[in-house]
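FW: tagging you since you asked about this chain on Friday. Here's the raw sequence from the shared folder, copied in full. Didn't touch anything.
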Amino acid sequence: MRAATVVMLAGAVALAGAVVAGAQTAPETAAKPAPVALKTAASFQSIKDPGARSVALFQEAGKVIQSPRCLNCHPVQRAPTQGDDLHPHNPPMVAGESGHGPAGLACFSCHTAKNVPTWGQDIKSIPGDPKWALAPAEMAWQGKSLAQICAQIKNPATNGGKSMTELHHHMAQDHLVGWAWNPGAGRVPAPGTQAQFGELIKAWIDTGAKCPQSPKA
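HL: got it, structure written out here
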């Protein structure tokens, strides 16, 4: 067995133990950090130019897209990160061919179908969702500018073949995307609500899906 695999397995066993212990002894609920506000789509109606309004809408939606809750699961290097500082996943983990972890160490070795609270000081809960997995490689954007992300997600050639309608449905209604607003104890939720985020994306699409300009070098 390779050394890297041994490290991942050892870490997974320890983390799985924390999940079991947390499930047995930790409180069912814990105080959540205060959420960050998100402007509504209607608040951008004063911008008369549709193109400028479209850009402004996406920039507001970008507060969610570029929040740690999303970036941690959208890594370009195909290895998840953790925390608000995007530090490497512990134990070390990679996407594998399926996005659910390498052979023999699936994400569900530690992550279950729901958030599980623990008594840990550094890890207050183990995140979970029935669809827990890394985002597909074509939707990897950690480290990219908002302009680059915008161009990527609106293009079916680089977003996994999604139409704009499908993209909106994914952003506004997907359960795993919705986890970002219910991330478990010890994590700051994504700004606003998923409903507000979905409205921003819909308004962005309706105004032409314009992208911000790339920052000048």
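FW: The chain has a mean pLDDT of 85.
HL: agreed, and The longest helix spans residues 3-25.
FW: great, closing this out.
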